[in-house]
Input
Amino acid sequence: MLTLLRTLTGLAGLGSLIIGAMWWYQPETAAGLLGASLLDGTGRTAQIGDSAAFTIGVGVLLIWGAIGQRAVFVLIGGCLIGLVAPGRILSATLHGGAVTTPEVVVEGVIFLIALMTWFAINRRRY
Output
């Protein structure tokens, strides 16, 4: 079971790394994957830089944690992804943003997989 969870966590991290690199090299495509459009001016600069940094950071944490069986890195990466979902929900309900149910579901699933991986790694150690 641990091997399966580590593999799923690593694949989620790899996907995050790829999307992060796309923010740098093909931002239109990366935005489209998330159902978003690129902003203009300084908004675009912040959108690309922040989105790339976030997704690459999460990817590194998930991959590093999965490969090295470092539970804390898996937990941190999973929690970062998990925090995106309530942000999307609040944006839609309080600020007139679009409802993005598929993205929220994916983020929730990645969070749950990371949480299960964190638990399985810790259980094996103690």
